[in-house]
Amino acid sequence: MRYTKKTFAELKDVIEKRGKGITVVIGNQKGGVGKTANATIMSYILAKHGIKTLVVDLDPQANASETLVHTMSRNSEDGRIPAIKKTILLGISEGDLTDLPVKIMDNLYLLPSYIDFEGFTEYLYEHTNNEYERNHFLKPLLDPLKEDYDVIILDMPPLMREIRDNAVVLSDYVLIVLQTQEHALVGAKRYIKKLIELRHKYDLPVDLLGVIGVLNNRRGRVDKIVLDEAKRDIGEDLVFETVVPNMERIKRFPIQGVGEDDRFDTQVLDVYRKITTEFAKRLTEAETRE
What are the coiled-coil residue ranges (predicted)? Predict the structure, then answer.
């Protein structure tokens, strides 16, 4: 996929006609496959192209929050750190998340997570009466945010079923991140199976947007085999054209934030401009498909 600014302008037009933001959950049943890296870097690219983007961190480990807080510091003149008004769990208990988002930079915002979000599952069971209520609990809290943002990206933990099911229920699209190892492919297929189950169970409009491949080894035979299996089992048209190569610099972004200070940063962001271009193109096509 060739990087082009026109694709982002077309997505912006579609969202304006739509009248509310698009919500995308990034998922895989397996952890450590690159979900957070893709969520944060793609959001940075979207913001740079005028797409007002909100990252919702639903992981108690708060890795996306840490990366974006460092991004804020790196891209500001004074290196400031945002003032946190309240935790996400407190916002949930108060029934309002609209005042939680923190501005990271122009067009990029974060709804941050905290360690206390580990208590969400217990809170959920205490305040619901059945499975339907549990799986739809976050939707009325996050839906109002669609009025303020063009794209909302949900970053979530791999093994918290209650968060996974809530994220699928409230999202418009699911984006799978697939590291090129067999366990990650199994996790991707399990996630897609659950997506299909929830879509049928609750008659949801949510759909699978695509699969982003993340290579363990640029020239690895296993990597090619796993990508070929994904194209065969999930669908060749669903696997993104551009894959993420194994780049050491990506590992530094959680420590120093996303930015473009040297050629190594640029190399990473050049790859993600292509990936995010395809992401924007797929969203535009999905939203305009009759």
Answer: none
